[in-house]
Amino acid sequence: MSTTEQPTTPGFEVDPAAFRHLADAQVNVELDTGDMILNMGPQHPATHGTLRLVVRLDGERVIAADPVIGYMHRGYEKLTEFRTYPQVTTLINRIDWLSSFANEVPFVHAAEQLMEIEAPPRAQYIRTALTELSRIATFLLFLGEMGLQVGALTPAFYGFRDREHVLNLIEAATGGRFHPNFNRIGGLKDDLPWGWISETRNVMKIVLDACDVFEDLVVGNEIFQARTRSIGIIPGELGASYGVSGSNLRASGVDWDLRRDGAPYLAYPDLDFQVFTHPDGDSFSRYWVRLQETRESARMVLQLLDGMPAGPIMAKVPRIIKVPEGEAWVETENPLGQMGYYVVSKGATGPFRVKIRSASFSNVSILPWMLRGVYVPDVVTILASLYFILGDIDR
Amino acid sequence: MNALAVEIPWGVLLAIKAVVILAVVPLGALVLGYTFLLKMMSHMQSRLGPMDPGGFHGWFQLIGDGIKFLQKEDIVPDEADRRVFALAPTVVVISTFLIFVVIPAGPRLQVANLDVGVFYALAVSSLSVIGVLMAGWASANKFALIGALRAAAQLIAYELPLLLAVVGVVIQAGTMSLQGIVSAQQDGAIFGWSGIGNPFILTQFVGFLLFLIAAQAELTQTPFDMPVAESELVAGYMVEYTGFRFLFFFIGEFGTATAFAALAATLFLGGWSIPGVHGTAADLLGPLVLVVKLMAVAFLMFWVRFTYPRLREDQLQALAWKVLIPIALVNVIITAIIKVAI
Q1: Do the interacting molecules here have an ipTM over 0.85?
Q2: Which structural domains are found in chain A, ordered by start?
Q3: Mean pLDDT per 10-residue run, chain A (395 residues)?
Q4: Cβ–Cβ < 8 Å for B169, B207
Q5: How far B79 CA lies from chain A's nearest CA (Å)?
Q6: In chain A, which residues have their Cβ closer than 8 Å to the Cβ of B143?
Q7: Which of A143, A318, A369, B179 is least surrounded, with the fewest CB atoms within 10 Å of its CB?
């Protein structure tokens, strides 16, 4: 250091420039605060169950977020290998437990495809109506829950209250509020009870009114918009490459709905309905799209009631169901997104292998990308707006 | 002077005052909690639960809740700083007690008539943030810590609009004594007509709105409840508290709501006063009048609380510094100009 030609003060042989640099470094070290690792979940109200998020924070800003799943893994894919086909529907009821009926449909379809039978038209119509009712029930809960997650208590109670009417309908038709287990291979367990159709018409009016209330109370609220607009943007192409599906993808401007674009199933080809998209891809647009889809579902149910054919509800099926050898892939548009079953049969009474493609699993896979750089409150908003069910992630 | 002017020894007087102050906070918390948290919210949200216990209109719910809290196990986290942890709820509640010292309920019904009453009340109310910080730090919980730091940032930011909102009233009344402010409203006149006195809400409505907004933030109520944020921080600084200590925070929360509602009623609605009623009659009617006005203000505050979503921390700060404080400053300047001009 002191080999320069200029004389230096004895004892101060350090180059002043280097010294200043060191001082700056010292200050920076003192101002630099360490990152904090915050463990959100598995017990956390924003994660609807047992999702765990390991969030690395700088102040309130998220540097990185790592979702940890599997706390609710129940091994359904393996369990199906030890069940007969009718028994499997009991299990898959519990995948997306908020819209259980919609879960049963693709699996039963796959079995029917392999057996080359088809449910009679009346059964198809009732299945469609109940699928749409479970979509309405799920979305009504979402519309309220999202309000709760951004801090408004009241919408949550309205959501629960109005969903109750729809659950009553499902219970009246199937006997179960949450886990109907109503589908049979080749049709349905029972016909609709007396008076169900007129009661459903009344409830659809309630649902449409509820949608108007949510539009006023939540969508129109300035604070809600400030909290959700431009928060958690999913670009359409990126979302599709992550496997995001359903309303989440449609909110990113991708016009893709399996009810319209997929292989025709249930009574959807007979129905006249609109698919809603939103160009923004943020949390607000996901809320908006689901709100519109709830309305559209209510209108679809009304159409189904008007066009409900008469006739049997069960095709001719053998008493002991044996599915011929083969493979089938059936995917449907479930409330949470694309739900698919890949069923491999070896000709036995139960499936040889079932692969379940559940929507939420793929939907949350984009979380690490989305959560980078947002604030802690936005984490909750994004989680709520993605709307996943833990049973649908872990299976 | 009148029947109430009996000579009371100072020791007895002090004891009476202490008992009244000690009773007012839990009572206020009970009344507000019952009326608004249970009844009003239940009606707004069509809740069935709080309408059921005890038979008539769910009257037993709050008492049952209280009993439940007393039965709960008192849990202190292993890592907690035990002494600070235990002290924190007390600090929060004490700040509430101290506000009531200066709030008048009648011409003579006041614990201490300070010349700087307004200043004292607002200064003491912000003491609670110390308790909140203590709770958040001592809990040894990251959620609690984030909540406490949010509370500190928020209470500091909203202290300013709160004070500035009151400055207009102080300028108009020409005094900082709460008793003086009340009599200025009681004896005032609107363009020479003194039928209803001159409640400052008529001239200071901007100040009234600002005061309500800032009070909402001070109380950490929705839309400013970032520090407790149930859906993300679970309960913020209160997350590790159970049983009786949690009850203390609860009493503090609703007691402070009572205090701020009483302050707003005193500053903007004329407090205990009815125009033309003086002396003993005012002393007897005063508390009732104050409670009615206080409940009206509290209704507004809780109405907002149960309707709106929550702002984000940065939006909340932006609202305070970019919107509320400039408006408050303009309000103060206009008030001062008018005061000087007239």
Answers
A1: no
A2: 45-394 (1.10.645.10)
A3: 47 54 54 74 75 83 85 87 87 86 88 88 90 91 87 85 90 87 86 89 91 87 86 87 89 87 84 88 90 91 89 84 86 89 87 88 88 86 87 83
A4: yes
A5: 17
A6: 38
A7: A318
